[in-house]
Amino acid sequence: MAIRNILDGEDSILYKKSRPVELFDARLGILLDDMTETMRKAEGVGLAAVQVGILRRCCVIDTGRGVVELINPEIVRESGKQEEQEGCLSFPGEYGVTRRPAKVTIRAQDRYGSWRMHQGEGLLARAFCHEIDHMNGIVFKDRVPGRKIYRK
Length: 152
Ligand code: NI
Fold this sequence. Notes:
alpha+beta, Peptide Deformylase, five-stranded antiparallel sheet, three-stranded antiparallel sheet, globular
């Protein structure tokens, strides 16, 4: 496994839409393993492939209950609302309060191409939305009303 370079918010790639993953090969497995290692080292909750310069629709998420790999994820259902502080590994030290659904159900492929359903509440629901946004070229700041960003 290898640590990959995380692009920062200045990089225009972050604002591009990612294409679906079509090949479920060893190279995808290496990318996902590298992304997990990179996320862990940076102490993040999630990392999308676009953040390491790969415009493909996949991400890794770990909210403390083990790594979830999502390939070509789609939101199936969402309900409720939450407003919580959010940040992003591409914007170190910057935070803002976003509005997200409280509960989210998604479908996504695993690294072998099988479709699975995932349900998330709270932080996990936010992470699903945050990472799927990345795949569409949207960053968390776009979800902060009035773009009220603070640093700490
Ligand atoms: Ni992010």
